[in-house]
Amino acid sequence: MVFAVDVTDDAVRVWSRDGHDAVVTRDESYTPSLFVAADRRPREWLRDRLADDPKVVRTATVERRRSLRADGPAAVLRVDVDRPSEVATLAREIRTVHEPGRWAPGRLRLFNVDMTPKFRYCLERDTQPVPTEELRTLALALPERAVADDDLTELRCAGDRLADDETGVLEAVAARLREHDPDVLVLSTAALVPLLAERATACGVDLQLGRRPGYRQLAGDSTYESYGRVGHSPARYDVPGRAIVDRSNSFLWDEGGLPGLLDLVERSWKPLQEAAWASIGSVFTAIQIREAFDRGVLVPWRAWEGEAFKPARTLHDADRGGFTFEPRVGLHENVVEIDFASLYPSIMCVHNLSPETVRCGCHDTDDVPTLDYSVCPEPGFVPSVLRPIIDDRADLKERMRATDDADERARLDARASALKWILVTCFGYQGFSNAKFGRIEVHEAINAVAREVMLDAKATLETGGWRVLHGIVDSLWVTPARDDHEPLSTLTDEISNAQGIPLEHEDDFAWVCLVPTADGRRGALTKYFGKVAGRDEYKFRGIECRQRSTPTFVADAQRDLIETLDDHREPEPVADRLSVQLSTLHRGAVDPEELVVRKRVSKPLSEYQGRTQTVAALERYADHGIDRAPGQSIRYVVVDDDKRSRARVRLPFEADGYDDSFYTDLLLRAAESVLSPLGWDRDRIERYLRDTRDARLSSFE
């Protein structure tokens, strides 16, 4: 059972377990390969040029498929590289040194270039990095401020505080490592790797985080932008013989834990450590790359398949998203939510939508509604990747419903959650310009089919006596429109059979509130809340208590207001409850820890122009020696919002008070989200609170 792969320029070490013991296999003969596609003359010319390159071990002309749309294999140049670290260097040299001046741009097309080293090794050596036994894990956590101060006394191991002095902590960590011999280190931040190593050396403690001495930095920290959102990737480290999971840099660990990660490792063959820090899109791409390897298809370094010619009318029809029904604002009783199971991935499978099948060139048929794109009937690449994921997720959910074992249900849920995010990502990647196996026409076709699916479903439901209150992406909220309505199960079965995609019952609601937009002119597409029928449970979407920036006190207060609405179904009792919450806030009786605001930094401190709360918080972080890069989160309490200096806010560990007027505004906004479906805007709420207060005071006159 392989659980870790260490790739260096001198050798690759593959770690597995033989019962209780960890064993390592050393591979010194591994030479990674890249491929170059070109006509015969430039291909032979490049082969001769590379013969004397010390980075190149050998070259050979081989047969490979250059794309999913290729009818068969064609001659390409395989270049075996001496060191794994030199693959990207050689590829850049081919692009910048060998091609310019001799060959026109694009004559030399490169493949299998930018795969991560461990993933590449597993694919090229057919090494499955999937553990077959339960992995041993060890968790180490250190608060952010302690990391900045190099203060190890706050370090916790598996939740336990270890010692009161640095040397004692280091010795305790070394002892835990020897005792547990973990396969996976789960760290609160990867910065613990160099910090523990450096402090152990300084204190003379024999501590090694890996199964062999030393560590390597794989990448420095970096800032990136994706879909207009700034993100931050912290530095990554490697230790011999163990996988590292950096909880500060692992969305998949948060969503699926170890069971979810291992499920994706098995599907993608990305080793555990790489899967842990990878984005959802990277894992989905890895699953596609593995399928491409199995088909003998090369992986392009740069996506070059441009958008095909379209008439202006087609461009107009294609440039649309999925269909959304405008919400009917208000409080609605006896509501049912129904969802198409994995709608967009299922559309790709049912309609065989894939880069090589849409507008294939071998058929002249009108298969995509409104766009009239043809779709080849030959089994598509993308459906072959998605169908097992869709089926396995459905099976996991069925097993969750069937089991009474809470631990087993949690494991199944973790795996299902990880697969959900892969399915969420796959649609967007078809329209992503840098996707290895994407194509804009596939993205357009999926949206066109989805619009028809939703419109057909709406028509069937309304004919059957149901009113559609709202619909977005793959979900519909319906309520009976007449007494003689058909059973909903009959209608969903009819729609499911017609579309080939299950339309499933998601939840019954005693009531649902659909929230208006800020200007009150229409329904907000993604804001609603409601009480699940027959259970002491509420569902919240888009409102303040679901937003990451909302302080705990405000989020809890909003949930409390919703419970009050559930008890009374009238706005006045909700406003009365709000008055009590405001009184608590004004008395200074709220713990500042419950008023922490969390925001993501979008740029360096030096680039901010105004004196915002973010700037004040960044300055306070800098005062404590804590770096905050674009894409990282900041946390602070507002203590005097009228100021424009760093005194405007305090960091959570500094705060001993708060600006009640600032938090009053947040609380009133949250209350408006609850009461606006009943027709009360903020002015109406404040007027009621003022009138109620005046009435109460007048009773004492």
UniProtKB/TrEMBL annotation:
Record keywords: DNA-binding, DNA-directed DNA polymerase, Nucleotidyltransferase, Transferase
All residue ranges annotated as the DNA-directed DNA polymerase family B multifunctional domain in the record: 319-646
InterPro entries linked: DNA-dir_DNA_pol_B, DNA-dir_DNA_pol_B_multi_dom, DNA/RNA_pol_sf, DNA_pol_B_thumb, DNA_pol_palm_dom_sf, DNA_pol_type-B, RNaseH-like_sf, RNaseH_sf
Catalysed transformations (reactions): DNA(n) + a 2'-deoxyribonucleoside 5'-triphosphate = DNA(n+1) + diphosphate
Enzyme's top EC category: transferase
Pfam family, one: DNA_pol_B
SMART domains tied to this protein: POLBc
Any one biological process term the GO annotation gives: DNA-templated DNA replication
Enzyme Commission designation: 2.7.7.7
Keyword flag Nucleotidyltransferase: yes
Gene Ontology molecular-function annotations: DNA binding; DNA-directed DNA polymerase activity; nucleotide binding
Assigned protein family: Belongs to the DNA polymerase type-B family.
Protein name, UniProt field: DNA-directed DNA polymerase
Organism: Haloarcula salinisoli
